[in-house]
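WARN no homologs supplied; continuing
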Amino acid sequence: MPTITLQQTTNLADMKDTFKDTKDAKLLRINENETSLHTKSSKLRGFGNDATTRREAKYQRAVDQVKSQLDAQFGKGVGTKILSDMNITNRISVGQLKAITSNLANDAKDAIKEQLASEMSNHIAPLQSKVLALYQEMHDVPSSKPARESSDPIRTNLTKKESIVAMQKVHDDIDAIDELNIDECACCVMNGMSKNQIVSTTKIDTLMQLDCVEQAVGDMTSANTMGRTVVSFDPTEQQIETLGEDEAWQAANAERELSMHQGALELKEYLTEMLTTDELAFFKAQAKFVKDLSELQVQKVGYCGNETDTNTIKAQLWAKTNTVNSATLLGFEITELAQESDLSMKECMFSARNLMTAMAIHYDTIFD
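OK structure emitted
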């Protein structure tokens, strides 16, 4: 009679290999000490109600044990999801065990992750606050340190299993937010924001294609990624010759700030006209998070761009970097936005990024 001793490291492949030559109809049972799985013996070892009850309990515990082993291997809840989808409740056959695959486990993880992400969308404000507080606790880096030499928690990619574990903590107890480490908290907030659908794709599509958005982001635009020429605010050689280098750069920077500010003022008018109170509050909260995070990243992670840039420019570059997750920040998958838009997928992605960048770097102008 095939038997497998159960250990913490026992995985799906081990269980399937043990029973690979066993008939599919055989039912799995667990031994008296609940340390191993085996199939039902052909020899009856008891009669009457008590014996039947004991056998049924062994069948049920076999189901529970398979569920636990799947959870241990693939992540909490995966075993429950798989067995539920297969309508396995109190008995599991060898054939059903063989039918469980890594693909089914991955599908279950995806479904669990999506469900937990939707739940995280109800806790975005405390999660964002906690992320920023944990950044504050990080050590300052030298002003000469480029960001590429540091790890940045908001861009840390946890595995699917790790993401589920982190979000499950909040699912089980909302107060667990206070106990999350920075990587876990960043994971929870990013997943939650991706499901926080407040503003319709129609409105987002209209807003992100406004000319004033491109003007507001100025040289922080994603247009360079699209191969388009980016407006330059650098002084010309003639201006440098006429005004001197320092004054020429001061004049160029003033022109840059004025042009971007004018774009932000126009964007503010559109946002005020097009959005409801709740929608405007949503954009305000997301822009504030990006703005505050970007300023902290300059201190705690390092600089983007050039070491000689002002802290304002460094923070703006971080805002542009952070909004690469524009669809996440806006609450939609980029494919959903692209379906609504007449832009290509790539153009849609970078236009949405510009919209989010503009709102973040001009937060005070647009929302205060």
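The first strand starts at residue 3 and ends at 5.
OK
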